[in-house]
Design goal:
Blueprint: H1 17-27, H2 30-37, H3 44-54, E1 57-58, E2 73-75, E3 78-80, E4 84-86, H4 99-110, E5 114-116, H5 124-130, E6 135-139, H6 145-158, E7 163-166, H7 176-181, H8 209-217, H9 224-233, E8 238-243, H10 246-255, E9 259-262, H11 276-287, E10 293-296, H12 302-310, E11 315-318, H13 320-351, E12 365-366
Parallel strand pairs: 4-11, 5-6, 6-7, 7-8, 8-9, 9-10, 10-11
Antiparallel strand pairs: 1-12, 2-3
Helix pairs in contact: 1-13, 4-5, 4-13, 5-6, 10-11, 12-13
Length: 373
């Protein structure tokens, strides 16, 4: 684990998100870097998530008054400063001792949402206590449904504003980097939301401890009935994280959820799945404006955010990029990543002649129906 960087040199922080990753790769132990950076099998989908943004082009309009650019928005009753949220990522104290607390503080200060993972190394109570803005809670449903219910109750009591049900993990994708490294949590860390329970530690296993944990604890029999169960269990808005097709998007809209997150789990589950940017337009069309559609996967520049918005996303989420910031400089590093994306988005909005989010539509992008890999 890296030592706390209490007084980072802000002038030396990376110039862009690629530089953040390079700095984090140097700072982190190899096993931790590979866990954060890696994906399933040949990591084809991981690469396609990024390539999709690089193959979509922008159509700038000129002679538009962009003396004031406003990237703010309303999302599930929250006023956010810009449309970039922090996605749920597990085990953040592997990157920095402050872990989830640092990320939640940075998100709030930036005026956006932090989504806390069930598999956090900080309890949901401690995370929300440290937060300076809205927190959502990401949920997996376990074989022990009572355990999931207890997590929901704790998230409600802690003040979380929404629940994100991850639907991409009936089984764990084969993450070969983790299998090679024998990925485990160090003795001083545990899955803090399960402190005092057997679920707080990985089981003894050959290869990835996470794979053994998921196999033992996650419920592969989940169906759409689980969405109905969760909506009955809580009064919080429920979003489904992991929708990848128009068929499932339409079913999600019928199920009464509050939102959809288009996600292939960062390429960490099914290798060969479509990049999320390619899936996004059909999902937006399928829900017909009935609920907000968000997207994650492959976002590394403000222009990427603009492209996702142009294809109908209400907002985007980032995962790996803010982990790199966390590893480099703790809370200040996460804040820096968010500031970079906001500045780049505002510049891209100005240079394409779209001073407000309402001005962004599919005419911003060229070849929205392009031939993809």
């Amino acid at each position: 684990m890296t030592e706390p960087n209490l007084q980072p040199d802000l002038a030396s922080l990376p110039l862009n998100l690629a530089d953040c990753e390079a700095a984090a790769r140097t700072a982190l132990p190899r096993m931790v870097y590979d866990y954060y950076a890696g994906a399933a099998e040949d990591e084809v989908t991981l690469g396609l998530n990024r390539a999709a943004y690089q193959r979509l082009l922008l159509r700038p309009r000129v002679l538009v008054d962009v003396s004031r650019v406003d990237p703010s928005l309303e999302l599930l009753g929250e006023r956010l400063a810009f449309p970039v949220l922090l996605a749920p990522t597990a085990f953040q104290r592997l990157a920095h001792p402050e872990g989830e607390r640092a990320s939640a503080r940075a998100a709030g200060t930036a005026g956006t949402v932090f989504v806390a993972s069930t598999l956090s190394t900080t309890t949901i109570e401690a995370t929300t206590a440290a937060a300076t803005g809205p927190v959502w809670f990401q949920l997996y449903v376990y074989r022990d449904r009572g355990l999931a219910t207890e997590l929901v109750r704790r998230a409600e009591a802690a003040g979380c504003r929404a629940l994100c049900l991850t639907v991409t993990m009936p089984v764990l994708g084969r993450r070969e980097r983790d299998a090679r490294s024998g990925f485990q949590l160090p003795p001083e860390l545990e899955m803090a939301n399960f402190t005092g329970l057997d679920q707080s530690r990985f089981p003894d296993a050959v290869g990835s401890g996470l794979e053994a944990f998921v196999t033992r604890q996650f419920d592969p029999s989940l169906t759409w009935d689980a969405v109905e169960w969760l909506r009955r269990t809580t009064s919080l808005p429920v979003l489904l994280k992991g929708i990848q097709t128009a068929e499932d998007a339409a079913e999600a809209a019928r199920s009464g959820v509050a939102g959809i997150i288009v996600s292939n789990h960062g390429g960490r589950q099914l290798d060969g799945a479509r990049p999320t940017l390619l899936a996004l337009p059909e999902i937006v069309d399928a829900v017909r404006g009935e609920l907000p559609v968000l997207v994650d996967g492959g976002i590394r520049r403000g222009t990427d955010v603009l492209k996702a918005l142009a294809l109908g996303a209400r907002a985007v989420l980032i995962g790996r990029p803010y982990l790199w910031g966390l590893a480099v400089a703790g809370e200040a590093g996460v804040a820096h990543v968010l500031a970079l994306l906001r500045t780049e988005l505002e510049r891209a909005m100005a240079l394409t002649g779209r001073p407000a989010l309402a001005d962004i539509d599919r005419s911003v992008v060229a070849h929205a129906e392009a031939r993809w890999p």
